[in-house]
Amino acid sequence: MTNPVPNPMLPAPYVVQRVLRETHDTFTLELSPKTTMNGFRFSPGQFNMLYVFGVGEVPISISGDPSKTKTLIHTTRTVGTVTKAMYKLKRGYVLGVRGPYGTQWPIGEAVGNDVVVVAGGIGLAPLRPAVYQLLAQREKFGKIVILYGTRTPADILFRKELERWRSRFDLDVHITVDRAMSGWKGSVGVVTTLVPKAPFDPLNTTALVCGPELMMRYTVTELQKRGLQASDIYISMERNMKCGIGLCGHCQWGTEFICKDGPVFPFSEIKSLFAKREL
Amino acid sequence: MENLEHILSEHPFLQGLHEDYLRLVTGCASNVRFEPGQYLFREDEEANWFYIIRQGKVAVEAYGAERGSVIIDTVEQGEVLGWSWLIPPYNWHFDARAIELTRAIALDGKCLRKKCEDDHHLGYELLKRFAHIMEQRLEATRIRLLDIYGNEK
Ligand SMILES: Cc1cc2nc3c(=O)[nH]c(=O)nc-3n(C[C@H](O)[C@H](O)[C@H](O)COP(=O)(O)OP(=O)(O)OC[C@H]3O[C@@H](n4cnc5c(N)ncnc54)[C@H](O)[C@@H]3O)c2cc1C
Ligand code: FES
Q1: Which residue of A59, A64, A75, A176 has the smallest Cβ count within 10 Å?
Q2: Superfamily grouping for domain A12-101
Q3: Nearest to residue A99, comparing CAs of A27, A53, A45, A54?
């Protein structure tokens, strides 16, 4: 008798090991598999479908370190039904996990280049695994620059980690917020204003951009003004998903299925779609 | 002076300015330094200067009794701070406070206004450059109004 093919729509049970409240509306779940001892392997940029039993399933990017396969880490912003239910989960609760799915940030392709990581709001979460991987092979890249924009100082995600990264001599970290009270020592202004000042060589740079679509649109414009080619700019797209594996068509965007052709795309491949409305 | 002229000629803000004009502008320039917390200017004061920031960071702030001082923008190394010297009634609309030790070249607006009135070509050259800065700040402000870090409708 042959082994049955595992059903790709069947979530595997994972236990919540730790819940970290990151900001007033974001939290990180550390999960471990309930039934297997196998580690969870993924590439930076990939996502899982997370199922809150009895509520629903949502795509959430993996925000942990790809070299640490024992724990699976996701960072989520509460916006609606499922993410709010997820926010209430506590240590010991069980969650369904399907994945990893989707394309990855082009870390291999960026070898030899400067790398600029531009994140807006919760967009830092899907980029964090890429930063871990870049830092694990630091010597293979030129300058590494992280530009992060969010609404207020209280909304800064992974604050301690950003501070650690900022104290490194081989990393440039710039954070800006939309508004702040007197006493804030960082920058105030939208994240796009950091691009013209950032120390990278536009002729030899790979850009990884993640955040809400408007933020990515204006960031791409600034990167192109700096001289980056569309093929050197990568963005991570979001659309509502159901199957996550290219079957249902829910996430179709023009000719692309975000769940399997994306979520990470070179901007050169999708720039005609990016400009279109109501796709 | 020669050193100041050299620094100004290298700055993108004055790039391409004819050397005679550069000399005129340098005649209105001086090196200044502000300690962290020190104000470069306060709201409603007469606006007689603008600054080319060489090092450090300056917060542009608005004060409201209920909220205290709110930072609405920061101006950093390489950037230009202040255009109220150019527009009547020549008063500052906000406070500007050094967040870090800040070194800048201060340009005397009264001195420049006089030179611009005497020579409209110089006035136009400076106005073009300020129009560019204003356009960039306006665009950044408009993008900020969109609240681009959320997907809320
Ligand atoms: C590939 C991929 C990766 C993602 N990675 C992450 C991640 O790492 N962390 C994370 O927090 N989110 C991530 N998302 C977004 C996440 O999937 C959605 O926020 C989630 O599906 C919302 O489900 P819900 O049931 O909570 O909200 P719903 O009940 O479906 O929606 C409630 C309200 O929220 C709005 N809404 C829906 N989606 C979003 C959104 N993305 N942002 C803001 N408002 C929204 C809806 O328009 C609606 O008004 C990702 C999405 C994709 C496609
Ligand atoms: S979610 Fe079903 S095709 Fe992408």
Answers
A1: A176
A2: Translation factors (2.40.30.10)
A3: A45
The pLDDT assigned to B144 comes to 92
Ligand 1 binding pocket (C-beta < 6 A) is A 47, 56, 58-61, 75-77, 79-83, 122, 125-126, 238-239, 241, 263; B 151
Residues B94-123: tens digit of each pLDDT:
999 999 999 999 999 999 999 999 999 999
Provide CATH 2.40.30.10 ranges for chain A.
Answer: 12-101
Predicted confidence (pLDDT) per residue in A37-89, tens digit = 788 899 999 999 999 999 999 999 999 999 999 999 999 999 999 999 999 99
Strands A114-120 and A205-210: parallel
Atom of ligand 2 nearest to the CA of A251: 4
Q: What is the mean pLDDT of residues B34-44?
A: 96
CATH of the domain at B124: 2.60.120.10
Q: Domain of B78?
A: 4-150
- Sign of the CA dihedral B114, B118, B122, B126? positive
**pLDDT of amino acid A7:** 81
What class has domain A114-236?
alpha beta
